[in-house]
Recover the amino acids of this structure.
């Protein structure tokens, strides 16, 4: 009897509570729950955007204002502003001149953040960006994501206090072999502090080599290596920091079809290149463009800060021919290739060399010497043709350039054999 009485009381209380809770209250409670069940929570210190509101019907695409909530607080399906655009900024070292060409002075970094603020460009968190893409949350019409790459301690010591001052969320893409390796590298403890402050920690491979580097690897060992670089680095970050590592950045922004497959199977929500674009709602999740700061090319970042760069192609659109060709090409002839063409066009994608002074580019062919070469700045392709037909034999192409007073170099080899069979007969 007593048990039945208690049961009735509990049921009654439950019914009363349900009646009292409006749908709005329920929604508020759901919003308080962490989005991901795999360990990532949004800490309170992270500036959070309001829940999605129905988008105003006649909003000009580039108005800098935040959509106003409707008069009646009717909560229904999330209305996401699909016309919103996001620029993604990418920095490496925040330590002025001594950090080299990838470095920005803290004062200038602060000016960039101020310019975003002055222009009404809202800096959003990676989680808000991903939620917008999944139609779970809306974002202001003009937004920016701030990302830093590699794992330099200057992100912790110099960038962090400035970002804190503005209350801006940010994402740190790290390559795991660099962490706690001494010198200017950040430690796992410092990364844990950043995590606790709401910084999104993304993967940037294990060793930071170009993921298109197939030299000296069989197809099987290339696969295994990609797995270690992409999935291995994600898993290590998740294990060390107890988070879900949701995003990835390609070293030098370079990928090929195999890399894209591996990134897909790794389960990232978005992967970032360095082709600066205004990212639209339908942009391809595997190639989100970023504007990277290079001290010798400050105009790139100007496009981002002025919100004036090109729009990203959508998921269904093929990438621009030039971008695709550049992304797929490593060298021509391929390293280790055997060819029978005695007058091959020599080509290489120099994207993996990073930043260098184009005026110092030299292409040499073993047994021949320097050959005049053309350089396609946009796609980073160097191209040359041997002045005379090549005799059968082994050849090595050496491309060198200067970057910040240092020499950078790439080389590959191929073999020329005499044309045989039908070709040989025709050639005689
Ligand atoms: Zn990097």
């Amino acid at each position: 009897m007593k048990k039945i009485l208690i049961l009735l009381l509990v049921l009654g209380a439950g019914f009363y509570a349900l009646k009292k809770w409006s749908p709005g209250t329920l929604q508020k409670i759901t919003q308080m729950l962490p989005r991901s069940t795999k360990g990532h929570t949004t800490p309170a210190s992270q500036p959070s955007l309001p829940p999605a509101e129905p988008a105003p019907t006649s909003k000009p695409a580039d108005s800098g204002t935040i959509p106003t909530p409707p008069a009646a607080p009717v909560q229904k399906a999330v209305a996401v502003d699909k016309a919103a655009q996001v620029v993604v900024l990418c920095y490496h070292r925040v330590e002025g001149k001594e950090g080299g060409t990838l470095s920005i002075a803290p004062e200038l970094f602060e000016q960039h953040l101020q310019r975003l603020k002055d222009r009404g460009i809202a800096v959003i968190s990676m989680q808000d960006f991903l939620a917008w893409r999944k139609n779970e949350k809306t974002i202001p019409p003009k937004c920016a994501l701030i990302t830093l790459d590699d794992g330099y301690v200057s992100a912790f010591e110099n960038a962090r206090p400035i970002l804190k001052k503005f209350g801006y969320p940010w994402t740190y893409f790290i390559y795991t072999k660099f962490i706690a390796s001494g010198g200017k590298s950040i430690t796992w403890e410092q990364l844990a502090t950043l995590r606790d402050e709401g910084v999104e920690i993304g993967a940037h491979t294990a060793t930071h080599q170009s993921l298109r580097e197939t030299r000296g690897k069989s197809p099987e060992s290339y696969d295994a290596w990609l797995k270690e670089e992409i999935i291995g680095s994600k898993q290590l970050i998740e294990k060390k920091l107890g988070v879900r590592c949701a995003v990835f950045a390609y070293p030098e922004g370079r990928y090929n079809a195999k890399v894209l497959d591996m990134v897909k199977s790794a389960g990232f929500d978005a992967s970032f290149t360095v082709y600066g674009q205004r990212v639209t709602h339908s942009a391809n999740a595997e190639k989100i463009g970023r504007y990277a700061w290079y001290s010798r090319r400050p105009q790139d970042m100007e496009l981002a800060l002025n919100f004036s760069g090109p729009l990203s192609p959508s998921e269904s659109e093929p990438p621009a021919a030039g971008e695709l060709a550049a992304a797929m090409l490593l060298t021509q002839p391929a390293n280790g290739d055997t060819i029978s063409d005695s007058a091959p066009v020599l080509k290489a994608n120099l994207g993996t060399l990073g930043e260098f002074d184009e005026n110092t580019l030299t292409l040499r062919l073993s047994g021949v010497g320097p050959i005049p070469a053309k350089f396609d700045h946009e796609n980073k392709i160097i191209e040359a043709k041997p002045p005379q037909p090549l005799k059968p034999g082994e050849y090595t192409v050496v491309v060198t350039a200067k970057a910040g007073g240092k020499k950078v170099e790439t080389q590959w080899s191929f073999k020329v054999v005499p044309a045989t069979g039908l070709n040989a007969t025709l050639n005689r």
Remarks:
- The longest helix spans residues 219-241.
- The radius of gyration is 26 Å.
- Residues 149-150, 204, 208, 251 surround zinc ion (CB under 6 Å).
